[in-house]
Amino acid sequence: MALIRAVLDTCIYVSALLASKGESGRILEAGFERRLFVPVTSPAILDELIDVIAPSGDHATSSA
């Protein structure tokens, strides 16, 4: 049986960083630790995550 592949919105990652015991943290745990689904992402989602968590000017993105 194939696992479900799920694209998670940036807000899930950010919320999990802020409150790992909350719903978003449990979602990430289900995917990364318990392997109930396969989290997938894209360069655009990773760029947005970096933009949200890194202070402006402290990073380089692939969409430059």
Give a structural overview:
This protein is 48% helix and 9% strand. It is mainly alpha-helical. α1 crosses α2 and α1 (10-18) runs parallel beside α3. The chain starts with a strand and ends in an 11-residue tail after the last helix. The protein has three helices and two strands. It has a two-stranded parallel sheet with strand order 1-2. The protein has one domain.
Features:
about 60 residues; mainly alpha; two-stranded parallel ribbon; about 50% helix; flat
Largest sheet: 2 strands, parallel
- Ends apart, CA distance between termini: 40 Å
Average of the residue pLDDT scores: 88
Rg: 13 Å
Structural class: mainly alpha
Provide the low-confidence segments as ranges.
none
Shape: flat
- Total number of helical segments? 3
In the sheet with the most strands, the strands line up as 1-2
Number of domains: 1
Number of strands: 2
Helix content: 40-55%
N-to-C SSE string, H for helix and E for strand: EHHEH
* β-strand amount: 5-15%
Put the structure in a nutshell:
By secondary structure, the chain is mainly α.
SSE diagram, text form:
Blueprint: E1 5-7, H1 10-18, H2 23-33, E2 38-40, H3 43-53
Parallel strand pairs: 1-2
Helix pairs in contact: 1-2, 1-3
